[in-house]
């Protein structure tokens, strides 16, 4: 599989080994009983197979057992934390902008919408250097009244498919969470 992605995978793997080695991991519980089906969590770790059902679109296969490339658009489903229907919550996305992304695109801007098609637009952030970042935004209480909330992400651009790698590559994401205020 490494030959399919060429040098991008090797560079990303080396970069991520360094970047995510300092990240703390949170326990994610997704359990299921016959009556209730899968339980939605407030936090998803993209390398955890239990989180797969909450990664709605735009995520590629797990790499290095802990992270995934995203396409230009990607979406997750999260459980609002207790009390967030009154106080709101904080969205935290642990991500990396690989050097290859900066080399090819110069900058990349990430924006998000909480609550689906009629949701609240969250302020975008532009990255102009490689590194590990946390995209943190307040999510209004009005978007968190239900049992789950869809968060849609969009990058202004992505590395286009090339050679044998037919993926559009934007960012590397290791986790997405909604945290109580």
Short synopsis of the structure:
This protein has 3 helices and 11 strands. The protein has 181 residues and is an alpha+beta fold.
What best-fitting shape do the alpha-carbon axes yield?
Answer: globular
From the 3D structure, determine the CATH topology: Jelly Rolls
Number of helices: 3
Largest sheet: 9 strands, antiparallel
Order of helices and strands: HEEEEEHEHEEEEE
| Proportion of residues in extended strands | 35-45%
CATH class: Mainly Beta
CATH architecture: Sandwich
Give the N-terminus to C-terminus distance in angstroms: 42 Å
Radius of gyration: 16 Å
Q: Uncertain runs with pLDDT below 50, 5 residues or more?
A: 1-36
Helix content: 10-25%
CATH superfamily: Galactose-binding domain-like
Number of domains: 1
Secondary-structure-based class equals alpha+beta
DSSP strand count: 11
Describe this structure in words.
This protein has 181 residues and is α+β, with helices and mostly antiparallel strands. The protein has helices at 2-19, 84-87, 99-105; strands at 32-33, 37-38, 43-45, 55-59, 68-78, 89-97, 108-114, 120-127, 131-139, 149-155, 172-180. The radius of gyration is 16 Å and the shape is globular. The model is unreliable at 1-36 (pLDDT under 50).
């Amino acid at each position: 599989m490494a030959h399919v992605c060429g040098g991008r995978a090797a560079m990303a793997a080396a970069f991520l080994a360094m970047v995510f080695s300092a990240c703390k991991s949170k326990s994610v519980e997704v359990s299921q009983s016959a009556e209730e089906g899968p339980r939605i969590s407030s936090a998803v770790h993209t390398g955890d197979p239990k989180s797969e059902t909450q990664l709605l679109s735009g995520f590629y296969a797990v790499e290095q057992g802990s992270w995934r490339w995203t396409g230009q658009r990607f979406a997750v489903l999260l459980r609002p934390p207790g009390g967030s229907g009154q106080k709101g919550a904080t969205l935290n996305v642990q991500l990396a902008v690989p050097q290859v992304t900066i080399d090819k695109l110069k900058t990349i801007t990430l924006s998000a919408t909480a609550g689906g098609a009629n949701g609240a637009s969250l302020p975008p952030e532009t990255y102009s250097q490689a590194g590990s970042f946390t995209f943190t935004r307040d999510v209004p209480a009005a978007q968190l009244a239900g049992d789950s909330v869809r968060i849609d992400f969009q990058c202004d651009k992505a590395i286009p498919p090339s050679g044998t790698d037919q993926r559009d590559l934007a960012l590397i994401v290791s986790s997405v969470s909604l945290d109580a205020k």
